[in-house]
Amino acid sequence: MFLTVTLTLLEGFLQTIKLFVLTLLFSLPLGLIISFGSMSKVQAIKVPVRFVIWVIRGTPLMLQLLVIYYGPGIIFNANVWGSGDGGRFVAALVAFVINYSCYFSEIYRGGIQSIPVGQYEAGQVLGMTKHQIFFKVVLLQVIKRIVPPISNEIITLVKDTSLARVIAVYEIIWEGQSFIKSAGIIWPLFYTGVFYLLFSGLLTLLFGRIERKLSYFR
Amino acid sequence: MAILEVRNLKKSFEDTEVIHDISFTMDEGETVTIIGSSGSGKTTLLRCLNFLETPDSGVIKVKDDILFDSDVPESMSEEAIRRKRLHFGLVFQSFNLFPQYTALENITLAPSLLAKEDTSIDASSIEENAKELLEKMGLSDRMGNYPHELSGGQQQRVAIARALALHPDILCFDEPTSALDPELTGEVLRVIKELAKQHTTMIIVTHEMSFAHDVSDKIIFMDKGVIAEEGTPEEVIDNPGNERTIQFLANYKNGK
Ligand SMILES: Nc1ncnc2c1ncn2[C@@H]1O[C@H](COP(=O)(O)OP(=O)(O)O)[C@@H](O)[C@H]1O
Ligand SMILES: [Mg+2]
After folding, report:
1. Could you say which architecture CATH assigns to the domain B2-87+169-253?
2. How far apart are CA B201 and CA B29, in angstroms?
3. Which of A86, B37, B59, B140 would be B7's cystine partner, CB 3.0–4.6 Å?
4. Tell me, what's the pLDDT at B75?
5. A119 in contact with B at a CB cutoff of 8 Å?
6. What is the domain-level CATH number for residue A169?
7. What is the CA radius of gyration of chain B?
């Protein structure tokens, strides 16, 4: 029984990890683009971008999942997400990417804006181009500052993936819960916690290493 | 022949004119010191020379190149400005070293980047040159240290070496010792004096009057965005003729 449960949960956890990895893959770069938008000098870009960030950060991810999955069907009267499991997974992924890129963008913005203007000016008087100043001077300092908040956000994402079950994405909690109905046992549901713990423990170790790698300067 | 000529320079921020109408010249190898109370526009003047601010009007001429002339609206593109900046160096009050690079790397970074676009620069000599500069600054043993491992005085000396590495025509200092603990100002003033002895062309904004007296060929006293008085240290500091200079120096002595 233990083996069957473990294998089934692993299958669910594979979905969890797939959602996790794909969300990061898209939202980390997208967040950077959004952060440039939110810092734009052009009001017509900055204002709408900040508005969207405010909406996304101000409402529950659970609600965003539901709106993104059911919304298009209600508005266009058509299923834009494709049918079955695959469609629901894509909808969940889109919701997660939108949500997390907004959070990441705010972390990027904080990181970029925390770099003293003297760093840019020192680069300028040394004849560096804007491009060189960003990549050779500013970027690593930004990365150093954003690693701790980004790690927090990423570890939150591990756990947030469980919200995808509201639109029936068969992630690990869903699989754990299914044993209540099928076998009348609840321990597989609790057992899922072990998977989360191991995975977030692994990530914590990884981020700790990155932070230590960057600790050679201040 | 004057290496730098500034004519009728003006600069406002919003409604307030910070630089009213400044004209002066300096010769190659001279050290010119700018004194004046806080808010008189000294920093803004240096920032205009280094194109961190764009003057509203006036002329800036280095050697025979007109770098800025508000009457001749030539190309002031990003790229053109970047090239013009190379005529000047600027040492900041707060050093502004790059924290992720060692002392040596702070100095070699900009020259290496320039060597990539300008093949006439000998890339192989950049590191050698940087090491020599650090030695001149008395920091040979600090080459591999990161800025946070250095004292303020050491950081400022690295910053001076970093500026010198690009061989600017004119090196500007904006209160280079104001951010330092009193016991660390000496080491920085010493290297600047040494540079003056070797006839490095420099414009120095400072509140260190006895240093200014020793090091300067010419002193400019700025007040409310204009040059109120200029002359040799003997003229301006020992025998000031202008009422405002007298008052500034009196306040300065009382403050000590
Ligand atoms: N970027 C700016 N925007 C608005 N006002 C400024 C700016 N920079 C300087 N000023 C003003 O210009 C005046 C001169 O400043 P500054 O050149 O820094 O003087 P100093 O270096 O002699 O103390 C001050 O009143 C200051 O508030
Ligand atoms: Mg100043």
Report:
1. 3-Layer(aba) Sandwich (3.40)
2. 4
3. B59
4. 65
5. yes
6. 1.10.3720.10
7. 18
Cβ of B42 closer than 6 Å to ligand 1, yes or no, is yes
Atom of ligand 1 at shortest range from CA of B14: 4
Q: Where are the domains of chain B?
A: 2-87+169-253, 99-167
Number of folded domains that form chain A: 1
Considering CB atoms only, which of A119, A128, A216 is closest to B113? Answer: A128
Taking an 8 Å cut-off on Cβ atoms, the answer to whether A126 and B146 are in contact is no
| Any B CB within 8 A of A213 CB | no
CB-hemisphere CA count at 13 Å for B186? Answer: 2
List CB contacts of A89: < 8 A, sequence separation 6 or more: A15, A18, A19, A164, A169
Q: What are the helix and strand counts (H, E) for chain B?
A: 9, 10
**CA nearest to A140 within chain B:** B100
> Which phi and psi (to 5°) does residue A197 adopt?
-60, -45
Residue with the smallest CA separation from ligand 1 atom 8 is B44
Structure tokens at B149: 């491992």
CA of A121: which chain B residue's CA is closest?
B52
Atom of ligand 1 nearest to the CA of B44: 17
Tell me which residues have their CB within 5 A of the ion that is ligand 2. Answer: B 43
Q: Do B90 and A125 touch (CB under 8 A)?
A: yes
And the tokens for A52?
């969207």
The predicted-structure confidence for B53-80, as pLDDT tens digits, reads as follows 999 999 999 998 889 988 877 667 888 8
Tell me, using a 6 A CB cutoff, whether residue B43 lines ligand 1: yes
Which sign, positive or negative, has the C-alpha torsion B66, B69, B71, B72?
Answer: positive
Structural domain that includes position A118: 2-217
Q: What is the DSSP string of B107-119?
A: HHHHHHHHHHH-T
